[in-house]
Every structure is written in C-alpha cells, then in structure tokens.
Amino acid sequence: MSLSEIWRHRAHLALPGRSHLLLRHAAGETSPAEGQRVEAWLASCGECRRLVAASRSGLAALRASAPVRLTAAESAVFWSEVMRRLDRGGTPAVRPVRPGIRELLGDHPRLSLASAAAAVVLALGLTLGQFGLWGASSGMNGVEILSVEAGDDASVMLFQMPESPVKIIWVFEPPDPL
Amino acid sequence: MDCSGEACSEPRNDDRRLVERATQGDRDAYGVLVSRHQHRMFNLAFQVLRNREDALDVAQEAFVKAFVSISSFKGEASFTTWMHRIVVNLAIDSLRRRRRGEGTEYDDGRAVPEGGEPDAEAPGNPAAELELKQMRGLLERGIASLPPAQRAVLVLREIEGMSYEAIAQAVGCRLGTVMSRLYYGRRKLQQLFRSQAADLR
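Output (structure tokens, whole complex):
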C-alpha cells in the first residue's frame, strides 16, 4: 500500500481493531451482527473491499493446498520406518530449538515498531542536539507533531515544518520477519 | 503397514483401546493407530514445512516420539489432538533448524494432492493454469515469510479447522498469542494477494 493510500484510508484502516475485524470477516469468523456492520462499512470503503477480497483469495489458496497425501510407496514403508527408528532406541533426546530474536519480533511486530520509533527519535534528538537545534530549553525548533496514529498496518506520524506549509508523513511499517 | 486389514476398519473411537494396548507394548496395535493417522499427520507436517521429505521425517519421528511417551498420554484429549501437538512442535523445531541453515530448502510447495497430479486442477486451460501457478507461488512466498510458530497457527486454524483453544493447547501458548499469530499470518497473505491484485490492475 502506498503512502497516499495509507493516508487516504487512515480513517478506515488505522483505528485499532479495524483491520483485525476485516481479516476475521474475510475468514468467516465474524458474528452476524459484526458481519452486517462490516458489510455496511465495506460499502463505503473501496480499499477495504479490496483488502477483504485479497484475504479471501489468500485463504482460499491456502485451503486449496490441502490435503497432501503420502504416495502409495511412502505409505507402504511408513510403518516399517517408524519400527526401524523404534528398534534403534526411539527418539534421542533433542533439545528443542528456541525461537530466534527475529522470530520473537516477527511474532510481535508492534514491539519492532516501538523499537524502531524509539531508535529514530533518539537518533533525531542526538543529531539535532549536536547542532544545537534541539536543546532542553529550545523546544523542537518549531516542528509540530500534528497527529500520531498507531494503526495495525502501520503507525503514521504527521509533522508540520516551522513557518512552512510543508508537512512530513512518517510511516513506521513492521519489518519483514525474514 | 497401510490401513487395509480388518483391524484398520474398526471405528475411530477405538483409538483409545489401541492406545491402551500400545501402552502395554503392543506394537501391532500401535501399527494400526499409525496407519489410521499417518496421512493426516503427514499432511499437517507438510502444510507447516512445505517440504515433502522433511514432512515425512517429522511425521515418522512424531509417531516414534508418541510411542516412546505413550504412557504419558492421559486420554483427556483425543489421540489425534495429542498427535497434532507432537507433529506441530516437531515441525516448528525442524523449521527453526532449517532457518539456521541446518536443514533442507523448500520443494515446489506442492507434492501429490488428493485425487491427482499437481496441475490436474486446470487441465487444458493455459490461463487458468497460469493463474493457479501464480496463486501457489504467492502462497508459498507468503508462508515462507512467516515465522515458524505463526505458520503453524495459521495451518491449524485454516486447514485443520481447529478452535483457538485447541490451537493454544497444541502449540503450548496463550489464547491471546494464538490470536495475534493468526492475525499476522492472515495479514501477510492479505498483503501479498492485495499487491498482486494491484499489479494486475
């Protein structure tokens, strides 16, 4: 999704729980009352309709990829291989692999977002402080934060530059888990 | 052993009796259990791992592990639920090893679907075949990008149709964690399929 799309649809997408509701609706998990509410809302939001359609395609493709069965040859030797391993002494005690830090962050993208946002603010503060542009007494040199929206898809901050019509949109997107 | 003998035709609720016999070391009884559940457990492992060879290994290892610890099976859940837990945890472990460079790569993501060859779903229709291929490619990309635990939760919910509570039990995490993993898994698929639709427009 492009920046302009995020901005245009922020009212629909950035409110907490809305994108979750869309995903649940696409998966057929909403109650009849919720479903009606979502359908009414979809009628007024084209991007939301496209997101629901994309979700449905993705889930349909996933469901269509199953079931996968053993071939006759694999099936024929399945039990004998289990027996062979049992005769060899069963399962050796293998220590389970702990999830890596990337996986943990992938499980909690908001944690990644928070870390990224904190790092950016720290770097910005240090840089501005270095040049005397941002001190304890000087405020933020006139830069005004117009809005901050912590959405499920991306967190968006809107800045207004001092004495200028220029506005800056800052989007914190979750990192790719890979 | 494949499920073709008289013992295999017994009803599924007979699993418990077979488990009891297996607990006393009766390997034949356990063999019947294995043959009843091998296809389903292989499918589950494959859906998480997307690699046939690894899935076969994990499914077999799961049955070995289950037999070794069958005395700890309390019968509170069904044998299938218990096996789900073992298969999923072994599959997650296998994925983590693979990601650390200790294992094999993905195969084409599609082995032998029930009832035919891989591309038998759109025979003689090049446009449909191409679309099917694109969908599968997208799906594989989406699944490959998910962390192992998210992937497992998505498969348990969308393919196995398990309840959130059963998934939490199988994966050994809280209900809230299941919901959040499912959310991110579904969103990943949504983003990929949305961007493809946008490209086509």
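The mean pLDDT of chain A is 74.
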